[in-house]
């Protein structure tokens, strides 16, 4: 089964490009998330961490988190 899949994938020109593109997208996403965590104020991250524990589930007021 695997040998037939490998045979067909080897016949496709440029197939080695797709794993490289996927790696670049995932790496850029990782860097973006790392940058977001570093630049986000600590109070905002604490609020996000406490969202599942909040008593006011239906509140959408942006002033509630300060």
What features would you describe in this structure?
This protein is mainly alpha-helical and 66 residues long. The protein has three helices and no strands. The longest helix is centred in the middle third of the chain and has 23 residues. It is elongated, with a radius of gyration of 22 Å. The termini are far apart. The mean pLDDT is 83.
Name the features.
66 residues; mainly alpha; 64% helix; elongated; single chain
Radius of gyration: 22 Å
Q: Please describe the biggest sheet, giving its number of strands, its sense, and whether it closes into a barrel.
A: none
What value does the average pLDDT take?
83
Order of helices and strands: HHH
Which structural class fits the helix and strand makeup?
Answer: mainly alpha
Q: Roughly what fraction of the amino acids lie in strands?
A: under 5%
**Total DSSP helices:** 3
Low-confidence stretches: none
Strand and helix map with partners:
Elements: H1 2-11, H2 17-39, H3 42-50
Question: Could you write a compact summary of the structure shown?
Answer:
This protein is mainly α and 66 residues long.
């Amino acid at each position: 089964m695997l040998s037939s899949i490998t045979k067909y994938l080897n016949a496709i020109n440029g197939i080695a490009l797709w794993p490289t593109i996927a790696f670049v997208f995932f790496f850029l996403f990782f860097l973006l998330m790392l940058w977001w965590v570093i630049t986000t104020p600590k109070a905002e991250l604490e609020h996000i961490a406490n969202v599942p524990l909040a008593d006011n589930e239906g509140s959408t007021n942006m002033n509630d988190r300060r």
